[in-house]
């Protein structure tokens, strides 16, 4: 194993994150052997994810507890062409108070200061969001590097990161150049990611693999490993703009790579599934997968985020059902 | 715990499946059940009962009837009465009923699933997601065979009344595997469920009757081994299908020997799980979980011997141990567990004792530090490393959640270790290299091979064992034949005794004498003198000495089997080559027609034209099997997954053939040729009376490029030689045609290594009628089907 190369900032996680603070992923020299030996059997991976739901069921009080935890892991997101400052402020208000206070009271968690994990916006609204979240510990995440396709000039992408960080973004969600993965140009992917990480400085960087574009699970596994070696704090499935969003099989493969990377380097890397996770049932399935594959530690927001916009509303309904025993409706919960 | 506690701990909490519907059903029957005979429950004639308990708690679930021989009599009588009408409904008529059973299972899926989990102790996840859906699938699939029977299986008819004995590990699924094909194809059934798990069978019978299945078609007699024994012995039963231990399978084989009952046996296993260094290791680890911690390891085809390439062994084991730490053991109705309860205390003790023995013999046991319920019958997932092939735990079936691990260096060694067992049920091969995986699969002695998967089942894909794991197949067309008998054989009559050997008359002829010829045995491609150096005289019907042939003994059989075992290349020789050699045999026999005609006439006294017909038919038969050699192909099944299952017809191995006296050349050729065509090596015992014909035949063999050891001929006293052959543990199959006693002896003595047997029970075969004496009927007995599951996808 090669020596671990310190890379940029190795300080602790951002303020407002729960759990014991962990050291940032310092990265590792590019090890092509680690890439070349990767084997993924799609059918076997699918068997694992399709049977997991039957093996682990989370019900009643446990389910309410898990869903509340899931809220703290949500990157409450708006990434639309028609976003405006007011829309972003409304999103931030929801992030501060994601669940009706009476429900939190009834659930016995009013004192837990439950907020979403972050708010995720385009660069244009970073400053607006930072201002709207002033006085909270909720970080602002910016999608960057020519999101979603990631085909802007490399230098432009680095400048975009720097600008967001300058505006107060704590987290940067970058997109990789899919071409590097599809052509097996691991050095180029590594270099690109390393530059992004450097440009982020103290801000944490999430590497969006756009797994829907990568098509094969082996590509996903290899890209995950390269991005982690290049210093990604999180690996993230999707932009939400590809035709295929986060799936459990893709996630399982990424989690296994996170474990391998940890075994080899000691670094803990976070995971962010994004796109298509819109129900409480979906999110529980991901939480179970995290717990089973990586353990309890990976259920906290410093190692798990959900990129989602409509998920929260469904969780709120489930929580109200838990409290009242009656099925709830969307209009009973304040919108984001 | 409160919501706030869960918010911090993120523990799973309890997720119990409700059991009130099942409790209500039990209560509705006063928790007491009789046998289900003739469409209704009726108590045991002698009033005896047993109890069935929840393994998870030890509580009694219900009382069941202990079936006696009289109860079995009752059930068989009812089934016999119903059979003609049931068969008379026709395939399409029966298809409606089988379809109704499939729908019935789906409508009551949760009731079955919960009842099964309670009675057996297996997790509700498995009964709900695996057992019950597969049960429905089996009835759907076989409704299809019923629908198609009148056109696609027109040359066959049902056997009649079938006795079926099923185990406790998959109670309802095993019922489906047995009942669906039996009923679909026109048989009626007497089913004996396991004494520990009879309830889902009783529920099934009750609901089947409610969904319109005519009374008497499906009868359930509950009870213990004695009940099963009574069913096995019953004269009114035409077939026994059994799933259970090899030990009991042996008893059943011996008990039914000579009875003419057809037999399907699904027995034990010690199946290998082979991981190559280019496998998707994470998925292979998950595969181990599915292999040995599925159903608490109480699975006949459980991958229970882990063979890992030495280069990745330590990493793999470390990861596996880590994975084991995340397993959860709990109450079967908990929806957040991986493993439930072991069936009963005695089984738990057996597992503990074997693990203890393994550790005593040097293995290291790893048991994860996880919780198991305090009461009830639970055993933790266990991994034994440092196990040597000689260890008890490497050879004995544990039938519990215990994996034993070994390493290998090369693919050859992996195959050798995998096949180093008396069993041959299943195998699992993990490699991302398709060339490697598909090279290994055919080399494994197992009826089912899963590539990068394990424990996959489907109604359309045959399941069954090699070696001491039993014989017969369940599922698909392979399994359908097990419940049918060929119309062509229905007219067979008991063989007429050959006329007594006349007294030798002194010769008074001064005609010039032919040069003396000494007939020998033919072993390993050579003419050899019999070990004992005695001879038998062959006498014509007129009392004239025709010649003398070697009197083979035990040692000659031993030598012949050894030579046959050595000729392993025949099994893998190309089918084209095997075809060419059989054609060549025919050609060379044709060249010596006159000689054979003369010999047959002299020995048997038949007219010259009849002898000519026999030789001509024998030549034709060789050509027929030459034709078949490259055409008796397997099938590609399409189970419901992204992938295929290749059903390959593989040779059985070394086959012993005992030939009858009638048509001595033709019957010999008719029995030997299909075995050779399919790649088996043969040790043949020709007719005792007319064995000289075989001595003539080996001269044909010698000129026909038949590789040494492929066909060995030992002449002598049939009974003595046949006994040695049937006893021999390195003979994989025995075909016995001739006296009824020979059939019975061959079947009874096949139990040492559970040989496949193919016998005529003393019924004469018209060797001249191709419908009766050649083709698929014989070819199917010359092969065993291996199903190789290949899920794919990038």
TrEMBL record, chain B:
Cross-referenced PROSITE patterns: ALDEHYDE_DEHYDR_GLU
Presence of the UniProt keyword Oxidoreductase in the record: yes
Xref: CDD domains: ALDH_F16 (cd07111)
A Pfam family annotated for this UniProt entry: Aldedh
Keywords assigned: Oxidoreductase
Location of the active site: 266
Source taxon at top rank: Bacteria
Domain Aldehyde dehydrogenase: 43-485, 536-760
Protein family per UniProt: Belongs to the aldehyde dehydrogenase family.
Name under which the protein is recorded: Aldehyde dehydrogenase family protein
Lineage of source species: Bacteria, Pseudomonadati, Pseudomonadota, Alphaproteobacteria, Hyphomicrobiales
